[in-house]
């Protein structure tokens, strides 16, 4: 059984932007909003050099890391070729304008 925790509203995240969910224990989580109001969540750490994905550019269903330009798919965390790697995904859902994460 998954424990869903409300973390913010959709309105708290700018379109094509992100919001950081600070955690007392463990890595921070970046919650992203696409132009089409889809919501995705990844740990706020690029698999390349640990750059803050929350500060990256959101385009389509991807985010570009601000440090070295790696492009990462928001829906699964997979890095776009020719680079290799994967950011850790956090299950998310949007319900009645509220964003929930599986924590």
CATH topology: Rieske Iron-sulfur Protein
| Element string (H = helix, E = strand) | EEEEEEEEEE
CATH superfamily: Rieske [2Fe-2S] iron-sulphur domain
- Structural class category: mainly beta
Helix percent reads under 10%
Strand order of the largest sheet: 2-3-4-8
Please provide the count of β strands. Answer: 10
Q: Strands, helices and their partners?
A:
Blueprint: E1 4-9, E2 17-21, E3 29-33, E4 39-43, E5 57-59, E6 62-64, E7 71-73, E8 89-90, E9 92-95, E10 98-102
Antiparallel strand pairs: 1-10, 2-3, 3-4, 4-8, 5-6, 6-7, 9-10
In brief, what are we looking at here?
It contains no helices and 10 strands. It has a single domain (4-95), classed as Rieske Iron-sulfur Protein (3-layer Sandwich). Strand 5 (57-59) and strand 6 (62-64) form a beta hairpin.
Can you tell me about this structure?
The protein has no helices and ten strands. By secondary structure, the chain is mostly beta strands. The chain has a single domain (4-95), classed as Rieske [2Fe-2S] iron-sulphur domain (Rieske Iron-sulfur Protein), CATH 2.102.10.10. Strands 2-3-4-8 form a four-stranded antiparallel beta sheet, with no helix packed on it. Strands 1-10-9 form a three-stranded antiparallel beta sheet, with no helix packed on it. Strands 5-6-7 form a three-stranded antiparallel beta sheet, with no helix packed on it. It is globular, with a radius of gyration of 13 Å. The mean pLDDT is 96.
């Amino acid at each position: 059984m998954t424990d869903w925790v409300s973390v913010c509203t959709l309105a708290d995240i700018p379109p094509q932007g992100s919001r950081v969910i600070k955690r007392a224990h463990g890595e921070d989580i970046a919650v992203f909003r696409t132009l089409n109001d889809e919501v995705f969540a990844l740990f706020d750490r690029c698999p390349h050099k640990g750059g803050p994905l929350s500060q990256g550019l959101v385009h389509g269903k991807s985010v570009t890391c601000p440090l070295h330009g790696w492009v990462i798919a928001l829906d699964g965390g997979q890095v776009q070729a020719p680079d290799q790697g994967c950011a850790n995904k956090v299950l998310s859902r949007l319900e009645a304008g509220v964003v929930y994460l599986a924590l």
